[in-house]
Amino acid sequence: xxxxxxxxxxxxxxxxxxxxxxxxxxxxxxxxxxxxxxxxxxxxxxxxxxxxxxxxxxxxxxxxxxxxxxxxxxxxxxxxxxxxxxxxxxxxxxxxxxxxxxxxxxxxxxxxxxxxxxxxxxxxxxxxxxxxxxxxxxxxxxxxxxxxxxxxxxxxxxxxxxxxxxxxxxxxxxxxxxxxxxxxxxxxxxxxxxx
Length: 195
Hints:
Layout: H1 2-11, H2 16-23, E1 27-31, E2 36-38, E3 46-60, E4 66-72, E5 77-79, H3 81-86, E6 93-106, H4 107-116, H5 118-144, H6 147-157, H7 167-174, H8 178-194
Antiparallel strand pairs: 1-6, 2-6, 3-4, 3-5, 3-6
Helix pairs in contact: 4-5, 7-8
Organism: Olivibacter oleidegradans
Protein name: Crp/Fnr family transcriptional regulator
Domain Cyclic nucleotide-binding: 14-107
């Protein structure tokens, strides 16, 4: 919980006293690698703040192939907006990629935090807009960028993840095959070795 409190203190004007009140609405939990927190079609209304570890949001196509939408390392939020904000069936699955400690957040927490600290509401809106911006960039990358451009953007966004996740998952996120990812990495390594 301390990691979440520190995050709130860094990014919002919530006071220690306000955070103490809000903590009563939060739950901290540790999940083991492989645990599925949310399945497509379920509706839990829960979101997750990652204190330590790594989560992933993904979807499955009709052939059962995984398509990774987002990773959530430390200090990231992750949730399915259909489920969290609208209590509708989730569009994505969320699973645990390594032992992960999270703070479980509800829509009620967000509303209560905004009620006692209107500035928190502005930060919440910022997070929503940032998420939309991120998704727009993802769509643009998947439609118009080369595999190399997508991989370089992945490294910029997630600089420490290449050693924590499999090449198959990175390829899934990039929308390419693992073989294509291998070729991209080899070409980048070849060019860098010539510099």
